[in-house]
Amino acid sequence: MRSLAFVLATFSLSAACGKAPEAESKAPAAPASSPAPAAQDPTVIKVVSSLPRTGSANPQTTTIVNGIKMAFEDVGWKVGSWTIKYEDWDDASAKKGDWDPEVEAANAEKAVKDPDVMIYIGTFNSGAAKISMPVLNKASLVMISPANTYPGLTKPGKGEPNEPKVYRPTGVVNYFRVVPADDIQGVVAADWAKKLGAKRVYILDDRGLYGKGIADVFDARCADIDVEVLGHEGIDPKAQEYKSLMTKIKGKSPDLVYFGGTTQTNGGQLAKDMIAVGLSCKLMVPDGCCEKSFITSAGADNVNGRTYVTFGGVPPKQQTGKGKEFVAAYQKKYSAEPEAYAIYGYECGQVAVDAIRRAGKKDRAAIMKAVAETKDFNGALGTWSFDANGDTTLKTMSGSMVKDGDFDFVEILGGGS
Amino acid sequence: MPTEPSTVETLVQQLLIGFTNGTVFALIALGYTMVYGIIELINFAHGDLFMLGSFLALTLIGWLGLTLVGTGGIVFGLIFIIVFCSLFCGALNWSVDRIVYRPLRSAPKLAPLVSAIGVSFIFQNIGLFWGGLTGRPSLLFGLILALVITPIAGLALAGVKNFASSRKMAMAEWLPRAATVMFGVAAFIVGLTLPSLSVDVFAGGTSAAAPKDVPNLISRANLFGSGVIQFTGKDLLVVLTTVPIMVGLTLFVKYTKLGKAMRATAQNPTAARLMGIDVDRVIGATFLIGGCLAGAASVIYAVYINTVNYQIGYQNGLYAFTAAVIGGIGNIPGAMLGGILIGVIRALSDQYIGAQWQPAVLFGILILILIFRPSGLLGARVREKV
User: Fold this and answer.
1) What is the rounded average pLDDT of the residues A45-68?
2) What is the pLDDT of residues B268-319, one digit of tens each?
């Protein structure tokens, strides 16, 4: 027991030591010990990103970071008289292998305390945004997300009753996203289902924040466009099989089954058991299943040619105009294909540059205001603006289907801004 | 496209699905109930043992290159895999008892229970590790070799303990156990250095935790032709393997000498020992048989459900344990009845009540049964334990 106490003591000591140099490293930029504006370096504007860099999201976030860097490289890391300094922070921990609430909270605090940080790009996960939004809001620090899609973060009435007010203690909008939210994706999915010839649909969801949210939107839209909803049920995402459920659904003979959920909430097994009971109708899933492991866990034979996936954006290969130029430049620079969200990272960087230029001074509130005033912005994603909630006016989505064990682009959905 | 099923047809279909699923639960439940019946230990690691078996089944399917196309080999391949996985799980279960539970036999009941939870976590992590071995055949081979060698070493070294079973020689108690573990580690290292079997065993992506797809080995064609009710070759396989195993087990316990010894030990270990029964051997045999059943169940599960991941042990273990409790824990026909009942309740609840209510309905019924029959459906006999 004594040795355990010793280990703990040593650990906390080393943890304390670990923090000290970090504080010191900031010292050259901030000679005075007080965090007052006097400590600012007047020639530098710092932009930080907080994304899960440890764990399975790493390939995706790496291309986002590359995209952000490319936006700054375009302007030679200089806006006006300021040098842009970019730091790539990790909000994941090895312990969780995914984003970690503690790390995200620490990142937000760190950004607020550093007087040079003017823009916070992040987060990747909607859950992480919930944590940092109120912290940054109190400091009038602007936050731009390349990937959050949960509607409640910005839209009143689309999430919990207290959302999004709870994330904006000061009442001012400081959070913006360049990617369309799930309430749009659900609507677009329902429209697409109708276009694919579905007249009778059966809706399932995983009872989670994301899955149920998007399935509810899909459900509501079906009523508006005269698609008959035969049933809407929540599944147990940990169950080992769904043969009985699928048999029941088969009895109602739907044209299409919609599943609001992810690969992690058993999308693969669901697809598999449809086939197992002889229900071979269409299956539509949202972007939570838009990853290769969905196909491998379902077994390619079970999803080929009948599974449709919506994605809250446009895949790299289908980009046009400036977006196409970005993809070409990315391929040239990194000799690799950008992942789906890379272009959204690039767009975040461009919005940041544009806002700093228009603000014309190194002041958090001014830059935040400039971001909010982004209007008819001609970026890689097209021409768009931020609305009063902080959402992009873009509603372009894409639909793919599973073909030969891979996602195959079918068409652009929703259309323009 | 078949016509809309009638109410009766739907009911029959759901009963069939429920029955088929239930027999798999029953097979796992038997392992729980047998061990509990004899040493009153709820072996929480049993579900995870089942999970390791299903990973082995998936790996063997890959190594043997079984596919739906090569119909001829499938029957023999499956028989081989069932036998091999049964032996593997049986031996593993036996060695867990030998290494972990047996030293705690006279300890308070809570000690082996907590150890069982520990073993369960170890197994889950081995499963997680196993799941991450896509495209790394030599590591995989090392792991399997270690899991096979360890029980064999344990078995061989068990003799050492009998050789020096004096109370004074405490070392002699620990030496075989430590050596057993060392053999396992050595086997793993040997496996690593062996030339790799260049077969990519399973396509499960790079994530260790991701569900793995088991290739479809049995045709999905409906045995009832184009009828409304579906009963495929897979369902037939499940029924054809589980039912004989359960009947065989019942006969075994009832009519063989070892079976009689097991029942005697269950009734009163001390008295059984006085009658000249080697209680330790009987308990070891119980773990072996329970493990074999879990192994057989794991292959059937992998082929029937077509998905394997490191968490299936927890889920199925929970249902199987519930089955054992509903039937009356310690009672073999009770476990079978409980398993089938759970399968049927789940199916009917999905059909007539709603998928989101399934766990609530299932466990609600469990509570009702236990209120009116506290010792389970067939567990009427109250054993007196000293």
Assistant:
1) 86
2) 889 999 999 999 899 999 999 999 999 999 999 999 988 888 888 988 898 9
Say if the Cβ atoms of A248 and B17 lie within 8 Å.
Answer: no
Find chain A residues with C-beta within 8 A of B312's C-beta. Answer: 240
Phi and psi torsions of A376, nearest 5°: 45, 45
**Residue B56: both structure tokens together:** 């082995």
Q: What is the dihedral of CA B191, B192, B194, B195, to 10 degrees?
A: 130
| Token pair listed for B111 | 């000690």
pLDDT of residue A42: 85
The rounded radius of gyration (Å) of the Cα atoms in chain A is: 23
Residue A40: Cβ-neighbour burial (10 angstroms; 0-12, 13-18, 19+): middle
Distances (CA, A) of B94 to A261, B89, B264: 41, 8, 20
- Measured between beta carbons, the chain A residues lying within 8 angstroms of B4 are 251, 253
Of the pLDDT bands very low, low, confident and very high (cuts 50, 70, 90), residue A5 is very low
CA distance to B37, B268, B270, B277, B278, per residue, from B274 (Å): 19, 10, 6, 7, 9
Which residues lie closer than 8 Å to A250 by C-beta, 6 or more apart?
Answer: A277, A278, A279
pLDDT of residue B4: 63
How far apart, in whole angstroms, are the C-alpha atoms of residue A249 and residue B235? 20
Element (H, E) at B351: helix B332-352
Q: Which of A251, A253, A269 faces B211 most closely, judged by CB atoms?
A: A269
Phi, psi angles (nearest 5°) of residue B305: -85, -25
The interface predicted TM-score of the complex, written ipTM, equals 0.81
In 3D space, the residue among A349, A382, A360, A315 whose CA is nearest the CA of residue A144 turns out to be A349
Measured between CB atoms, does A230 come within 8 Å of chain B? no
> Cα separation of A348 and B169, whole Å?
72
Tokens of B289: 């048989």
